[in-house]
Amino acid sequence: MQETIFSYVDTAPPCAPENSTLKGLTVAVQPNLSVRGWPTRAGSRALEGFTAIEDATVVARLRLAGATIKGATHMSELGLGLTGGTEAEVLKNDDADIVIITDTMGESRVSACAAGVFGFKPSYGIVSRFGLIGLIPSMEGCGVLAKNLADISRVIGVIAGNDNRDLSMPEFGSELELPDFSHAFEAKEPARSCGVIRQCLETMEKDEKSAFEAAISTLAKRGIKPIEVSLEDFDMVRTVHNIIGAVEASSSAGKYDSVRYGHRATGSKNWNEMYLNSRAESFGMPVKSYLFQGAYFQHENYNAFVDASRIRRRLSAAMEQALANADFLILPTLRKSIDPFKAGTVNEIYDSFPWTPIANITGHPAITLPGMITCEDIDLGMQLIGPRFKDATMLSTAAQLKENT
Amino acid sequence: MAYEAVIGLEIHAQLNCTSKMFCDCPNRPGDDPNTNICPICLWMPGAVPMFSMEVLEKAILACLGLNCKVQPQSAFDQKVYYYPDLPKGFQLSQHHMPLAKGGYVEIVDENKKPLRLSLHHVHMEEDVAKLVHETEGRVPISLVDFNRAGTPLIEIVTEPCMRNPHDAMEFLKTLRREIRYTGSADCSMEQGTMRCDANISLRPEGSDALNTKVEIKNMNSIHHVGDAIAYEVKRQTESLNKGEPIVLHTRLWNPEKRITTAMRAKAEGPCVPDPVVPQIVVTDEWLKKIAARLPEMSSRKIARFVTQYGLMHDEAVQMSSEIELSEYFEAVVKNIPSPRTASSWISTQLSPAMKERGYDFKDLPVTPAQFSGLINMLEKNEINSNSARAVLTKLFETSQTPEAIVEQLGFRQVSDTDALESIVKQVIEKNPSAVENYKNGNKKSMGFLIGQSMNLSKGKANPKRLQEIFKEKLI
User: Fold this and answer.
1) What DSSP state is assigned to residue B86?
2) CATH fold label, A6-233+314-404
3) Given CB atoms, is A383 within the 8 Å cutoff of chain B?
4) ipTM of the complex model
């Protein structure tokens, strides 16, 4: 396996118990998902030399089910965007069957789309975030990349479910059922309608739009009726994500002080200088700007944060409403002309995630299917967003759409 | 111009829970440095905070004890600031949606009138790590002890409703008593389990204005709070009289010099909602269950002791100062006709004797039955006060009844009239000059005569009866 793709390769031999569900399945993770004893830098000098103390819940469950965690990829700094990441390369190169990738604003879906594979972001709260070194706690979660839906389904079936070490998860039980992924491909009620967000159409380039509409009419011919839905605040998605994301990131990254781990600048006269110099030398430009934005909204423009939080609630309610009228929502995943791996500023990062952050803001499950919307040889990705906690239904819908093509 | 002080207090009380607020580490900040720590309270990458139900229950108990309205929904915020005692860059506290609002504490003011002091709100908060500053040779070093990081606090914020040091000190005493009654916190300012900051401003008497305030920190006892407020009121009055404006800042109380000094301004950080710790929902049903665990609170108990046992208000306060003491008192007075004597003897004899021997009411070897037996004998004049004190000393060492001890030591008081009359007769015969003096109007001579009689009886004579007999004989 290549060093250019993996930042760390586990040399321990696989030791799956007989008859385990995921026996033989190989998994790559990002170096922000804790695997005990592994270097866990999360793509940042701020975590230089940090070794995970415990397995993340996701890692522990995968191993218990017999999967082999082969190694860790390279990743963008603290998972913001995809610049410098090699997650999807792993699949292109056949180095593993599955990649677990943190989805903060659409990273799992956009990277999958770019690599021509499936990328799934589960409902917020369905998969434990214990052991995930993240940046935006209220929006991020483990996404799953794979070449086929069956593998995604098997993996999510193993990693989803109650974990008392992550309190942001709801209590799944009799009142709120955990999706049953074992029957994900036996849809009793096939999807009959898809919601097309009017305001989303307005954001597309002309050729992107015609490719998207062509895909929708193909679905319509196969019995899935397009329904126009309206999300009044759709044009605010980027702003809302940016403000809330930056504020949470600023707090989350507050712990990187170079005292117990991470890069420490030399020559500082006191602790305050040491913090400032070390952080200045540790963070790259996009993260630095993002944290600065967050500090600005915390200290100088808190009202903007309050407004963003209010619009976020409104968006969630509007999504629920839209999903009451349609079985799922349909959007493209990737812009035709923007390379998400080359984004060098916060604005460029957001530019390369035009249609995915909505599901991070509202916590809905979303998946991108390859080869369904093509525009001038570029796969725009067909992104489905389903009702919250109906992740299994959404996977079965995805299978239904793929079968028909 | 005559000024009136406007005083508000902010009190931090450490909840006496077994574990910290967001992890399972023991809530024992005083252990060897950095022994009660884990990835969560060290805020290591990948750790996710949990939340202790015990903390929530004890915080709610304290709020209910202070008559607060516990909110059906409350949430944690991040108080953002960067300092080595807080390596994650924010303190988890409740700012926008506190656990409880309102509430009050009732005190007796300087004019002996009841006064209700209102609370603004009560919220939960994690404590931060402790910094220890030392030197290694000539190099100053700072050490961080994380045992305290994440230990549970409640912060009680009053309205600016106090006007003088007396109010503030009485408030703190009452608050401490009520919270101790709920069993949720120990509230010792000396041991640092209760800390108090005071906000003080002045205004012309009769005005309703809320002027620029000054915050005072570093008071380590209730008396310090009173002294610091008194000093600060004087200092601000002098400033205003000199025409100097009051500037918003923080001052430290210096207990040695008994003055306050300005400290470097600390930037007040913003408060943003925490995205990880879930919102706290308190249902009515659950709140009722917790409320059912509250004991009779001390304010009610004081009123009851006054009506039920005929205690004076101050005595009732004394007998209610701790829940264990109040229970002891009630157990003692169950079988005796004179609760006030019991109250007085608990305050002036038993409590000092306990302190001297290092006991508190939880491990006191003198049982209520023994003590009430002692008070009974005293009340019935079977023994005198001196003998009673000696018996009390014995009771700390033995489980015998006080009656048995009195018999052994021969303390039983002689009240028999014939016996006493014979003593009186002897004393009158032996001390003609004192008798003469008494008859000539020198009342002090009676004391001498009784003293002589007591000596003669080896301390067992009932002095009250002696005096009656002397008076009869010497008319």
Assistant:
1) B
2) Amidase signature (AS) enzymes (3.90.1300)
3) no
4) 0.93
